[in-house]
């Protein structure tokens, strides 16, 4: 199983939605509520945003036949705290010389980070440098009805117009998302338990290999790791979406 699939499967039970392995939007707009798209190798690929007008930047690749935007309605805003990494039930973690001040993770001494241990064959972990801003649509019935009425048109747009070759159950509509500035994630893929992993916090603003190194992983071959965003992307809370919630029925 690929790392991004293990990551999603292991964290879905935490109740935050779909854990996104590759959350860096690059030069594209970040994921938003009412985006319609699909997952590709751990990244969300937008087809269009169902709440925006036809000429909007999010809809530059076109909209479905007979397109009418959805009215999102009431929204709930909140915070996903960075004070504790989010892990699967199979992963134990320990924080070393790290604290959270003003919603941002800081070193308490000369160095700091986290150590993780996976007690089963698979597991996952997510670390946020800053608190994530959470946005959820509240009118779920409106979204469910909109999906049912338009799902076939979305599939036609994806396959007949854009030739993506996706199946009906791959289509997603985002009903909520959590956004932060910097993050790090890991997927344990070992065939044996008791695999260790360490994340060491570094200096903000330093880049290595095109990837932000606010911290670095020390890992073995049986663990896949990822972090972001890339150094070319401005660091603010509109860039990365480690979690998204979707309605596909």
Structural description of this entry:
There is one protein chain. The protein has helices at 3-11, 140-161; strands spanning 18-19, 35-40, 43-49, 75-80, 86-87, 91-96, 98-101, 104-107, 113-118, 123-128, 132-137, 172-180, 183-188, 195-201, 207-208, 211-212, 215-218, 223-228, 240-246. The chain is mostly beta strands. The strands form five sheets. Strands 1, 2, 3, 4, 11, 12 and 19 form a seven-stranded antiparallel β-sheet that branches. The chain has a four-stranded antiparallel β-sheet with strand order 5-10-13-18, covered by helices on one side. A four-stranded antiparallel β-sheet has the order 6-9-14-17, with no helix packed on it. The chain is elongated, with a radius of gyration of 19 Å.
Q: How much is the radius of gyration in Å?
A: 19 Å
The total beta strand count reads 19
Strand content range: 35-45%
Question: What coarse outline follows from CA principal-axis ratios?
Answer: elongated
Major β-sheet, in short? 7 strands, antiparallel
Backbone structural class: mainly beta
SS element count, helices: 2
> Mean pLDDT, rounded to whole units?
83
Percent range of helical residues: 10-25%
Following the backbone from N to C, one meets helices and strands in this order, namely HEEEEEEEEEEEHEEEEEEEE
C-alpha end-to-end distance: 26 Å
Spans of at least 5 consecutive residues whose pLDDT stays below 50 are: 204-212
